[in-house]
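Section 5.1 Outputs to date
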Amino acid sequence: MGAGHGDRLTSLDASFLHMETSTVHMHVGGLFLFDGRDVPDFDFGQFLRLVRSRLHLVPRYRQKLAYAPVNLHNPIWIDDSSFDLSFHVRHAALPVPGTMAQLMEYSARILSRQLDRNRPLWELYVIEGIEGDRFAILGKNHHAMIDGVAGIDIATVMLDVSPDSATDVPAPEPWSPAPPPADFELAWDAVKDLVTAPRGIVDASRRLAAAPGAAAAKALRVGRGVVGVLSSNLPRPAPHSPLNRAPGQHRRFAVQRMALERMKAVKNTYDTTVNDVVLAITADATGRFLRSRGTDTEGLWLKAMVPVSVRVDDQRAELGNKVASVFVSLPMFEMDAVERLRVCSEAMGEVKQNQHAVGADFLIGLTQFAPPTIHAAASRLAARARLFNFLVTNVPGPQIPIYCLGARLVGAFPFTPLAPNHTYAVGIVSIDGWLNFGFTADWDTLPDIENATGFLIDAMQELERSAEAADTHSQLARRRDPVEPPSELRKA
C-alpha cells in the first residue's frame, strides 16, 4: 500500500498534527451500519481475526510517529514494536434495543476523544445491540494518516463485496517490526532530507527547459489557479456567522441517508451534477437550520470549503493526503429551489474554470520547503484565518453491495473534524446507491444538530417537486408542438 517504514510525513499531512489542540481534533471517522439479520450469531472474535488477517494490506495501521530531535523536520512513520491489536479494535454494545439516538450519542463521545500519538493513529469499535437487528463499526483515523478518498479504500480492505468472502478467514501473514531508529539516525535523516529537498527545484527547472511548451502551458494554468485562490479568499474573508465560534472539546453527530437515484433524477432534469445537487440541498438545509435557531438569513451568503481530491488513479492505493480545497459561496436565505441549484452549479463551474483546485494544490506543494517550525506556525495561522464558514465534503465510494462477515452495509456516515472557530461541518459518502450524510457539530454551540437532518429531507423534497413539475411541463410542451409543415410550404 506504499506505506514503508521510515516514510516522512508531507507538509500537508504534518499540518494536521500542528493544527491539533485540546479542542480542535484532527481525526476523521466513519460510522458503518450493518443489517445483521442474516448473521444472528455475529462473533466479535471472528471480526478480530478478520482484521488481523488483513493488516498486511494496510501497513500504516501498524506504524506510529517518530520525531526528529528539536523538531528538525517532519516526523516519520516507523513500525510499532509493541503493536497490540486489542488496543485498536474494541467491543461495545448498547442496551437492547439501542436506538439511533443512543448510537449517535455513543459515537459522538468516542469521536470527541483524541487519538494516542504514541501508538498507531487509528481505532475501531464494534457496536452491537442496535434496534432492527443491526450492528455498527465506528472507525477513527488521524487526518495526518489518511484522507477521505484513501479512507474509503482502506475501509473496504476490512470489508467484502460478497457475503461469503469472509466465512473462511485465513491465518495472518507473518510480521516482524523493523527496529526503531536512534535519535542520531532521525536527526541525520532529517538533515539529509532538508539538504536534498531543494534539488527538486533544480530538477523542475531542467524539465522546464526540456519541454518549454507543455511546461509553460501548465505553469499558466497553475498560475491562474493560484491567483484565483488568493484573490477570491484572502482579500474577502468569510462573513461572520453563528457557525463560527470557538468549539469546545466535545462533539455531536447526526446522520441521514438518501437514495442516489433521487439526486440523479434532479441533476438529469436540470443538466447539472450530483455534487451540485448535494451542495444545493446542503445549503438549503443549513439555511433552514439557522433560521430555526433565530438567525436572520436574509441576504446571507456563507462560504463553504469543499475539498477536492487530486489523487490520480494510480495513487488510490497510497496513504496520505492528496486533496486541495476550493471555496464556494452558498446562499443561506429563502429562495426558489431550482434557482439555488443553478447558483451552486455556476459557482462550482467557476471554480473549475478558474483552476482554483490546481492553484490550491500548488500552494500546498510550496510548503514542502518550509522549515517545520515555520510550517507549524503557518498551519495554525491558516486554520484561524476566517477563510470559510463551514466544511462540505463529498467522497465517492463503491457503488456495489458491501458486507462484513455476511452482513450487508446499509449506511456509511462520515465524521469530519472542526477547524478552529468552526462549530459545524457536513460530510457525505456515496456507497451502494446511497448518499450518506454525517453532520458534525460542537456539543455546546449546536445541541439541536439532529434537526439539520430533517431540514435536509425538506430541501430535497422541494427540489424533487420542482423537477417533477419541470418534467411534466416539458412533456406537455412537446405534445403541443405544431406539426412541421411540408418543406414547400416553409419555402413559400
